[in-house]
Design brief:
Length: 319
């Protein structure tokens, strides 16, 4: 494992951001493998690793010293265990109508095997992991509410350095309808499935960084997990709760991903680069579609990464 961070480090100016997407995190890891082969050592420049859901697991794993290949192996060998379902469970939950689709126990076992008792403060890189707190338990009744929560290991009064990495990974991965909530937290994808803008904001937080790097010095690479082509045809939909509940999570995550992309592009210009490939219309990949990992591997292995490689050489490695 890499050496731990010192309490005070230089202002971050190289940021890696990883989207959520369940099993599609395999795509992210293959992209990282291919970029490592094309530009050896480039990831050593990364100061901050940000992630949501499966991207949070990737960010924490890399900061823990695991390689993209090691993380990919875990996805390929343990996903069937994580997304195991049974007719008994479906019967008890009425087909997920009154309960989460999957148990948290297998995912918790996998994350514990990855991180053990490692805390965020033990990691070799700064991290920012998005979650959503269903009840912040503020003693002031006027401030008690649900709210986004971004776990990080920067110094300062609001630091989460003592939090265990395996628990934070579980919080950010607790996708509604797929898994139960954990300690009152659910998947950060409901607010920041693309955490790039949150990561950029963190680089400027003077509570944690004494002298933030100017925006013109920051390079931010945002890696998506592939986009399924989704739409709701027609001009008018007089729908109620039952009709909207199924597409709502997809609408939320797609919307906040696009907003973060727009904001980062406007603030950083060419120093921001995003890889978010679109799947063919007849090849959508669900978050829990572990049986289709071989297709996902083939898709990711054939993507054209020449523009990304050129961007890394021009903007990531400069200065």
């Amino acid at each position: 494992m890499s050496p731990t961070l010192s309490p005070k480090s230089a202002s971050p100016d190289r940021v890696l951001s990883f989207d959520g997407g369940g099993i599609r995190g395999v795509l992210t890891l293959i992209l990282l493998e291919r970029l490592d082969d094309a530009v050896p050592g480039w990831r050593r420049r990364a100061d901050l690793l940000a992630g949501t859901s499966t991207g949070g697991i990737v960010a924490l794993g890399l900061a823990h010293g695991l390689s993209p290949r090691e993380l990919r192996d875990l996805y390929e060998t343990r996903s069937a265990e994580i997304f195991a379902d049974s007719w008994r469970d479906n019967l008890r939950d009425l087909g997920a109508l009154v309960g989460a689709q999957y148990s948290l126990r297998p995912l918790s076992r996998v994350l514990r095997s990855m991180f053990g008792t490692t805390t965020l403060g033990d990691l070799s890189r700064r991290v920012l992991i998005s979650t959503f707190d269903l009840d912040n338990r503020n003693p002031d009744p006027l401030k008690r509410s649900w709210a986004p929560k971004f776990f990080h290991n920067y110094p300062g009064r609001d630091s989460d350095r003592e939090q265990q990495a395996c628990r934070v990974a579980l919080y950010t991965s607790a996708a509604p309808t797929f898994f139960p909530s954990v300690d009152g937290y659910i998947d950060g994808g409901v607010v920041a499935n693309n955490p790039a803008m949150a990561a950029l904001a963190q680089t400027q937080d003077r509570r944690s960084v004494r002298r933030p790097a100017p925006l013109e010095q920051i390079a931010l690479l945002s890696l998506g997990t592939g986009r399924n082509l989704m739409r709701i045809g027609g001009d008018r939909h007089d729908w109620g709760q039952t009709q909207w509940v199924k597409p709502l999570l997809g609408l939320i995550t797609a919307g906040n991903m696009s907003i973060a992309d727009y904001q980062c592009r406007q603030l950083l210009g060419d120093r921001y680069h995003r890889v978010s490939p679109v799947f063919p219309e007849d090849q959508a990949f669900p978050m829990d579609g572990w049986k289709r990992i071989p297709e996902l591997v083939e898709f990711a292995s054939n993507l054209d990464l020449a523009p990304t490689i050129a961007w890394i050489r021009d903007y990531w490695l400069d200065g």
